[in-house]
User: Fold this.
Amino acid sequence: MSDRAVVLDASALLALLQSEPGAHLVAELLPEAVISAVNLSEVVAKLAEHGMPDGAIRSAFEGLMLSVRDFDAAAAVAAGLLRPRTKAFGLSLGDRACLTLARDLGRSAVTTDRRWSDTNVGVDVEVIR
Assistant:
């Protein structure tokens, strides 16, 4: 098990929940990981879109005991301010929410999105596949 504290992107949590490549890496990081409420919402939306029942979605998250961090006004402003520096890479609000939380906590951001490696926003990025 890892004792590294990280911030998970929606794509990383989806990799774990759907047993995709990189899932084992996320599982190792899970005990100390956190996620933004924005990214959790993205995961819920994706699972619901693929037909997973509401109860099953809720149960999946309860079993993970993942720390979910609020996306407040300060986070909203910080994520918005990242837009000019990340627009060329096609990063979404959810992506910027994850990066903002990682920067605020001084942690690495974990994602499956290789585009993040090219950003320079003061956050270490780990691409899991």
Observations:
- Residues 34 and 66 are 6 Å apart (CA to CA).
- The chain has one domain: 6-127.
- The beta strands are 6-8, 34-36, 67-69, 108-111, 125-127.
